[in-house]
TrEMBL record:
It comes from Halovivax cerinus. The chain crosses the membrane at residues 94-116, 122-141, 153-171, 177-196. Residues 1-79 are annotated as: Disordered. This is DUF456 domain-containing protein. Keywords: Membrane, Transmembrane, Transmembrane helix. The keyword Transcription regulation does not apply. Residues 41-64 have a biased composition (Basic and acidic residues). Residues 68-79 have a biased composition (Polar residues).
Amino acid sequence: MAGESEETISESRSTEELLAETEDLLSETGGASGAGASGRADSHAGRSRDTGDGRTSTDPDAGRSADASPSTGAATTDRSWLSRLRPSVPTVGLSSYFSPRAFVGLLVALGVGYVGGGMVPIPFGGSLLGLFVVAFVIGVATSKRRYTEMTAAGSAVGALTALASYLPLVLGGVGDRIVLVGVGASVLACLIGYYFGRDLRDGLSREV
């Protein structure tokens, strides 16, 4: 009986020792695998970072930006070529045909000329002579052609002065022709004076 109990105790001890050794082996294997994984991660990080010997780190964003920059440059080049090939359409504004500021200035100047010409002791046509002189001076003094503004200003001056002079007849319905004659005479005097003024300016500039 004593021999059997000793054998049982020895077998239980050997079993416990085997289990302990197995646990030790498993723990060592797990530590080795963890160390290997950490070593691989460190080596990968080391390859990604700059080592200082001339090699730079691997940056996927830099590659994507480098790939995108040629496409951006190509798009910019295409837009520049399209802008060159596109026909240039000149933008023409209202001021190219009619300048309101020039019209107002001519209206004031011609009004002064009309009033000043009417004060000259001439039996007939003193106001028209004043319009002619003012338009002539404007044609000599200005370089840009203002025939449209001159026509409009002369018509306005002629209509206003005719209405002011023959207002009772106009209200009576019999002064329409008088107004038309006054407008036509004023426009004609302004255009003739302006034309001769520009012609004189052109001749003087050619001689110089």
